[in-house]
Amino acid sequence: MTVPENVLAELRTAAAAAADKLATNIVGLDVGDRLGITDAFLICSAPSERQINAICDEIEHQVKTQHGSAPLRREGRGSGTWVLLDYGHMVIHVQNEEERAVYGLDRLYADVPALDLELPDQDG
């Protein structure tokens, strides 16, 4: 595993925040060796723009409060289908369920190690 402990801690905080706002199918991926520009991805789904925005707001709040980190950039807010939060060391994708199926990040990165996010079992 190439994800540093501090990054894994932030990723777990983001995953817990997403779960608190009812995100589904939350997955952490160790993409550092494959991409080289970031250590990890967090991918999760939601059924509506409103929920996607609530999830992103909670992730940003919890990661800032607990770790002092803020995204370097945000993309897709207002699109209703996919918001990307780029923290540099981790990238968070909050996607509409249909967009996730179409773009298939899970399939594109199926060969990288999954990360233990320490979340209770999900039915997403």
Task: Please explain how this structure is put together.
- By secondary structure, the protein is α+β, with helices and mostly antiparallel strands.
- The chain has a single domain (5-111), classed as Beta Polymerase, domain 2, CATH 3.30.460.10.
- 40% of the residues lie in helices and 25% in strands.
- It is built from five helices and six strands; from the N terminus they run αβαβαβββααβ.
- The protein has helices at residues 5-20, 32-35, 49-67, 97-103, 105-108, and strands at residues 24-30, 40-46, 73-75, 82-86, 90-96, 114-115.
- The protein has a six-stranded mixed beta sheet.
- α1 crosses α3 (49-67).
- The longest helix has 19 residues, at 49-67.
- 34% of the residues are buried.
- The mean pLDDT is 94.
Entry keywords:
single chain, 124 residues, alpha+beta, Beta Polymerase, domain 2, 6-stranded mixed β-sheet, 5 helices, 25% strand, globular
